[in-house]
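Q: Please design a sequence for this.
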């Protein structure tokens, strides 16, 4: 049974009015408004087609409108009070190093377990597909990330956001895709699979498609871990150790033990890098043509213990070190926090102090 135009018109009317309503809200960035306007512009573009064209492309339009509909969940979750804008600033600093047009993207978060939620249409990126099919170019695009609600004002567990941005950079530059393509074409043999890919459960001899899918997800996870480690050292594992204390593997993730092993290598002496790590790094290049490597820049936040602001970071790249430094204070120096009477501060007061001082530090570079 074919889709009918009367339903498409209804869908268009619903999204058009929802877009107008969305423009009345206040968001953490003007870029969110720009994205809403681009969605409305695409809806008006669809409405410019005559009935013959609409009927011909109705399945394509349905798919694109369905994705726009899903994007509204991220848009409505991005009001100025929901997520600290300073968290997005840290992630924007990262984008500047890896994509040539960072101002054409807005990072949006919706509630859920941490995940990069790229929108695919017929197996392709939504924005690429719209442009190739309809010659419609979005001026503002979305990077959709899910994150737990209680972490929307947090800088510490949000080391996981760097992992998710790593997934976006991988997606943008097709790094893992290139590795898998070379493997499938016989151009590449992955070394040390018995060490780093031992948690894979799909047998290549009986299910080649399933094997390639699991291999892809495992490599994507390793790459995103390395990306997060570049900026936040091993902070990601503070989160992983809490949500997955057993460190077990699943169909999409290697065990925490394997993930931590490769991050430890990455943060150590390059002379000791394994062949597997060297392979992953050989497929990663930033805008300067450099491969992924640890960030050695540091921002001293020891004054936070005395509830005082730190000096302005020397550069945007210095900001990211605040996250592992926050963990060092939280794990080892909570007993040094005192209130105005000299009494020990409770952990809620300490946490609020650390988050507020971190936000003020990032604001100095916004």
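A: Design:
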């Amino acid at each position: 049974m074919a889709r009918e135009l009367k339903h498409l018109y209804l869908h268009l009317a619903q999204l058009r009015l929802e877009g107008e309503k969305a423009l009345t809200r206040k968001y953490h960035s003007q870029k969110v408004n720009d994205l809403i306007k681009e969605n409305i512009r695409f809806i008006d573009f669809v409405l410019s087609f005559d009935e013959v064209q609409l009927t011909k492309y109705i399945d394509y339009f349905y798919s694109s409108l369905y994705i726009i509909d899903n994007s509204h969940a991220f848009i409505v979750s991005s009001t100025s009070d929901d997520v600290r804008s300073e968290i997005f600033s840290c992630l924007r600093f990262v984008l500047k190093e890896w994509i040539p047009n960072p101002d054409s993207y807005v990072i949006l978060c919706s509630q859920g377990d941490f995940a990069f939620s790229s929108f695919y249409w017929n197996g392709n990126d939504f924005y690429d597909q719209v442009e190739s099919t309809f010659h419609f170019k979005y001026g503002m695009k979305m990077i959709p990330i899910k994150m737990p609600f209680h972490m929307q004002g947090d800088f510490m567990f949000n080391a996981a956001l760097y992992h998710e941005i790593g997934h976006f950079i991988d997606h943008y530059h097709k790094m893992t895709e290139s590795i898998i393509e070379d493997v499938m074409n016989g151009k590449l043999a992955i070394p040390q699979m018995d060490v780093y890919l031992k948690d894979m459960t799909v047998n290549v001899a009986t299910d080649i498609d399933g094997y390639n899918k699991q291999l892809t997800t495992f490599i994507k996870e390793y790459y995103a871990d390395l990306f997060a480690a570049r900026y936040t050292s091993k902070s990601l594992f503070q989160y992983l150790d809490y949500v997955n204390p057993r460190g077990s593997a699943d169909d999409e993730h290697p065990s925490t033990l394997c993930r931590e092993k490769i991050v430890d290598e990455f943060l150590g002496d390059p002379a000791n890098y394994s062949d597997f790590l060297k392979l992953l790094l050989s497929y990663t290049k930033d805008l300067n043509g450099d491969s992924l490597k640890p960030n050695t820049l540091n921002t001293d936040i020891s004054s936070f213990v005395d509830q005082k602001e730190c000096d302005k970071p020397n550069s945007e790249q210095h900001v990211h070190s605040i996250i592992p430094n926050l963990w060092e204070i939280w794990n080892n120096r909570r007993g040094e926090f005192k209130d105005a009477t000299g009494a020990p501060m409770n952990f809620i007061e300490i946490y609020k102090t650390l988050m507020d001082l971190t936000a003020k530090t990032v604001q100095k570079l916004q």
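Q: Thanks. Anything notable?
A: Strands lie at 105-111, 115-116, 120-121, 124-125, 141-147. DSSP finds 16 helices and five strands in the chain.
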